[in-house]
Amino acid sequence: MTPHYPEPMVLVDLETTGANPLRDRITEIGIVEVGEGGTQRWSTLVNPGVPIPHFIQRLTGIDDAMVADAPSFAALADDVAQRLRGRVFVAHNARFDYGFLKSEFKRLGLPFRATVLCTVKLSRKLYPQHFKHNLDSLVERHSLHVEGERHRALTDAELLWQFLSAAARDHAPEVIHAAIAELTRQPALPPGLDASALDDLPELPGVYVFHDAADVPLYLGKHGNLRKGVLAHFVAEPRARDKPWIAEVRRLAWHETPGELGAQLLETRLLKQLTPLHNPRPRPARELCAWQLVPRDGLLVPERVDVARLDFAHTGRDQVYGPFRNRRDASKLLEKLADNFRLCRRALGLETAGKAERGGCLGCVTGRCKGLCLGKESAAQHNARLQTALAKSAFAPWPYPGPVGLPEGPEWASRLHVIDRWVYLGTIADPAELPALLQAPTPMFDIDLYKLLHQELRRRGEQSVLLLTAS
Questions:
Q1: Domains of the chain, first to last
Q2: Are 422 and 453 in contact (CB under 8 A)?
Q3: What's the pLDDT score for residue 255?
């Protein structure tokens, strides 16, 4: 049909009010139709029905006044559908544009499916020697001619046509055809999973869950790109064939998150709520405990405490170490430290001396105790080494006077993860949601979330941490 591919194409670019096709709206459509009769160009502004954020206005040059008298997408739907029908859908970061159009059609109760070709992926395949493949890089690399303003829909759609034409000059037709065929190949889905279930998958971070015919969760995963993460399960590679449960998949659910942290928080919570059949079982944490050093006759003695009884604001001051999933894990740490730091096993409570026994602890016999139990070492010396040994296991005190928010996501779609005393309360999109979240029952302390949040706060330092109040 063309030197680029034997099927008709439609090159599409959209301008929108944001990055989320489920929440944001289209403000401009640019289309270049390519077929036997040559190329046809069409574009229109679209009234999104919502205000355009200032950030987007600065990026695209499209403001509220420009779209005030433009037609709505509903008024344009039939015309747009006719232009797209029966053609390969081509766009740069194609799932963005495809996802927005699919969402707009879905709001009107209209189906929309197409074979999708992403020119970012095509550029990577045809020009692997280059690192950057954004549209500005393609313009510079291939000397594309910009007619109009960048970040306007028809200008950018026209640049895609110029890129395909440049690629056709650089490569033989069979090379381009093979690359496009590979990029548009459909995944081998389980027979019971509707192919349309994958159409709405965004290229955004999040968590996905596969369910069987009885709606039992089979497998839960997270990925920085939901679409890529899900499709990876259906590629014809040995690793995919080693998952027999794939054939049982009947339903796919997913949850978008503003970033990698949100995906980790949600994954940790959902794994314990849903317990999918084919994920590794989370280690039980029914006996969450910690060690607290208590002075007794001048000697610091570790006492086991229930995590539920701790005041997380003072764990550092109170010399608390942990947390541990159970008593066994807590004791294993003391056993290890006793050997590595030559601490007295009796002082640690790991060994009890009989009434008639006058010798030292077992560590003295094996040369792994410095002799506290025989009076060869002072309590102060033993205390100092014990505190040094436990330092890496210190239970971090909650460093803020109250709840905090950890922002994540781009400026126009930022979310706030709300944390209080190492407990993840939830994620909000609007400050107005905060009072209800803070007044809701507090979730139980989770050891895995504690470790994740402790690491995240250390990474951020004081940056990007917001102190919160319910008012």
A1: 9-183 (3.30.420.10), 195-274 (3.40.1440.10), 289-393 (no CATH), 404-467 (no CATH)
A2: yes
A3: 93
